[in-house]
Design a protein that fits this description.
Structural class: mainly alpha
Strand content: under 5%
Radius of gyration: 16 Å
Largest sheet: none
Number of helices: 4
Helix content: over 70%
Length: about 120
């Protein structure tokens, strides 16, 4: 009886985590698209880059945690993507790039992979 309850709690927690991740990527995509439309250096751009930086910093910390149950190869791939996203955000912030489209595309791809569109 307790085992079934515990399993249910874990499933509910995992589902909530995935839902939070989906919502975070949804917000990131909306913000990046607004930034792309408004242009580099605008309030929309600054807010989007800050949000992306915070999101990926949290994700990278979670991926580096020994308790993260994802396979090592998948973690390594997502870490590589996260590091690229952080570098790209910095390139835009520094004015060396003005294009948000690759960041939007990657975010949409990851969001799609999280399911429940």
């Amino acid at each position: 009886m307790f085992e079934a309850t515990y399993r249910s709690m874990i499933e509910d927690t995992t589902a909530q985590i995935r839902d939070n991740e989906r919502r975070a990527f949804d917000k990131s995509i909306v913000m990046l698209k607004a930034a792309q439309a408004a242009g580099r250096g605008t309030r929309e751009s600054v807010e989007a880059l800050l949000f992306v930086n915070r999101l990926w910093t949290l994700l990278l910390e979670d991926l580096a945690d020994s308790g993260n149950g994802l396979p090592d190869s998948l973690k390594a791939e997502i870490i590589s993507i996260g590091l690229w996203m952080l570098r790209q955000a910095e390139e835009i912030r520094q004015g060396r790039s003005h294009d948000f489209s690759a960041m939007i595309e990657i975010s949409e791809s990851i969001r799609k992979g999280l399911g429940k569109q």
